[in-house]
Write a structure and sequence with these properties.
64 residues; mainly beta; homodimer; globular; CooT (chains A, B); RNA-binding protein (chains A, B)
Chain lengths: 64, 64
């Protein structure tokens, strides 16, 4: 499977795991809607800071 | 490998392939920098409209 894990970028700290096994990411009002491969959904006021698909990483940054 | 293909969303038309085998996507000034698994880079004035990783798709939308 080619899903990725979504991490929240923290200044000066290790990135924090937000959602594992993410399949879909769709912009949603002022944030993002993430859906994992099991259909579980999470919303967050954030934007995509970086994708690194070979590393299975989606890095998110909170929008203030 | 878990790279995806990046497509440019076209209103009322089929999405247009922009770059295959994308590994990394990083915001770049007013657009995005895409890098494929071979290190080839392409820039585009666009934003991520949708990710669908199980389908290996990154959908981009041009910024006017």
């Amino acid at each position: 499977m080619c899903e990725s894990n979504a991490y929240l970028r923290k200044q000066g700290e290790q990135d924090e795991l937000f959602l594992e096994a993410v399949d879909r990411v769709v912009p949603y009002e002022d944030g993002l809607l993430l859906e994992d491969i099991f259909g579980k959904r999470k919303m967050i006021k954030a934007r995509i800071a970086e994708l690194s698909l070979v590393d299975h990483k989606i890095i998110l940054e909170r929008i203030e």
